[in-house]
Design brief:
Length: about 325
C-alpha cells in the first residue's frame, strides 16, 4: 500500500501563511474565508502576526498599481457632473468575469442572472467567453488526463468539486461525457445542492449511478437544516462540501490510500491549491478534461464543446 502525505490542517495552513509559504489569497481559499479580515482574526486568535512583504515587493506592487490609480483618477475627472463615469470593463459584470476580475457567483449576482447556465448564455450573447487558464496549462492538463487514461482509467476516480463543470456540460448537452469516462465519478452533496434548481442534472446523475456516486459531507447536514426551516440552499454549499471533503481525515483519505489516480475537476484551479497533497492527486479543469478527450479521440473538438456551452438550449 502506498504511503500518502497528509493534507494540511487549518492550523497548519495559518502557520504556512504566517511563515510566508503561501499567499494571502491561497490561505483564504484553503480556509474558505470570504475576507482578509477573517484571516487576520484567525491569526490573532493564535497570537500570530501576519507576514510582512519585503520592501522591494511593496515597491513593485505600487509601481504596478500606478496605471490603475491614474485610470481611476481619470474616471473621476470624466465623471464630472453628477459623478457619472465613462463605461468600461469595470462597470460590466460580464466583461469583468471574462477578464477574471469577478468570480462566477459575483458575476451572476451583479448581472442578476439565474445561475451559471444563464451566465454562459449571457456571455455568448455578448460575444464573450469564460476566463480560461493559459493554453500551456490546459495542454498540460490534457496530456495528464491522457496519460492517466492510457494507464488504466478503470482504477482512477474523478471528483466533481464544483458546480461550474456540471452547468457547463449541461449547457453544451454533453453531460454524457462524464459517465462515459470509464471511471468512478464522485459528486459532492454540496455541488448537487448548488445545481438543485436544474432537475435535469440531478435526474441524469441518478440515472447513471454507477458510475456516479454522491459523496456525503458536513454540507449535507447544513442543507437539511435549511430545508427543514424553509430556507433556500446556501450559495456556498459546494465550497463548504469541498472544504470538508479535503480536510485531513475527511472523505478524500479513503480514495488516496490506494495510490490510484484521483482527479479533482474544478474550474477554479487558479484559486485552488492542495498543499501537502500526494502525487496521485491531480487538478483538472473542464477545458483540460475536454482537451484530453479530444486527444483520446473521444470527441472531435474540445473547442466546439466549449463554444456550445455559450449557446445553452432553452435559455
Amino acid at each position: 500500500m502506498t504511503e500518502t502525505a497528509p493534507l494540511l490542517t487549518p492550523a497548519q495552513m495559518i502557520e504556512a501563511f504566517a511563515a510566508g509559504e503561501i499567499s494571502r489569497e491561497e490561505a483564504m481559499e484553503l480556509l474558505r474565508l470570504s475576507s482578509y479580515a477573517q484571516l487576520l482574526n484567525a491569526l490573532a486568535d493564535r497570537g500570530i502576526a501576519p507576514p510582512k512583504p519585503p520592501p522591494e515587493q511593496v515597491g513593485a506592487e505600487l509601481a504596478g498599481a500606478m496605471p490603475v490609480l491614474r485610470m481611476m483618477e481619470a474616471r473621476a475627472r470624466i465623471g464630472g457632473n453628477g459623478g457619472k463615469t465613462a463605461p468600461g470593463p469595470w462597470s460590466d459584470p460580464l466583461q469583468a468575469f471574462a477578464r477574471g476580475l469577478l468570480s462566477q457567483r459575483e458575476a451572476i449576482r451583479a448581472g442578476r442572472l439565474r445561475d451559471h447556465a444563464g451566465l454562459l448564455a449571457a456571455l455568448g450573447a455578448a460575444g464573450l467567453a469564460p476566463p480560461r487558464a493559459p493554453e500551456a496549462g490546459i495542454e498540460a492538463e490534457a496530456a495528464l488526463f491522457l496519460r492517466i487514461r492510457d494507464g488504466g482509467m478503470g482504477r482512477a476516480t474523478l471528483l466533481v468539486a464544483g458546480e461550474a463543470p456540471l452547468w457547463s456540460l449541461r449547457a453544451a448537452g454533453r453531460l454524457d461525457l462524464l459517465p462515459g469516462l470509464g471511471m468512478q465519478v464522485l459528486v459532492l452533496d454540496g455541488v448537487l445542492d448548488a445545481v438543485a434548481q436544474d432537475a435535469e442534472i440531478g435526474a441524469f446523475i441518478e440515472a447513471h449511478s454507477p458510475p456516479f456516486a454522491v459523496e456525503k459531507t458536513w454540507a449535507d447536514e447544513v442543507a437539511e437544516r435549511r430545508r427543514l426551516a424553509g430556507k433556500p440552499p446556501r450559495t456556498n454549499a459546494a465550497d463548504v462540501a469541498l472544504a470538508d471533503f479535503l480536510t485531513a481525515g475527511g472523505g478524500i483519505d479513503r480514495y488516496l490510500r490506494s495510490g490510484d489516480p484521483f482527479l479533482v475537476l474544478c474550474d477554479r484551479i487558479r484559486g485552488l491549491r492542495l498543499f501537502g497533497a500526494p502525487s496521485n492527486l491531480h487538478l483538472l479543469s473542464t477545458a483540460g478534461l475536454l482537451g484530453g478527450l479530444e486527444k483520446a479521440g473521444v470527441i472531435p473538438s474540445a473547442d466546439k464543446v466549449l463554444r456550445d456551452m455559450l449557446r445553452p438550449a432553452g435559455r
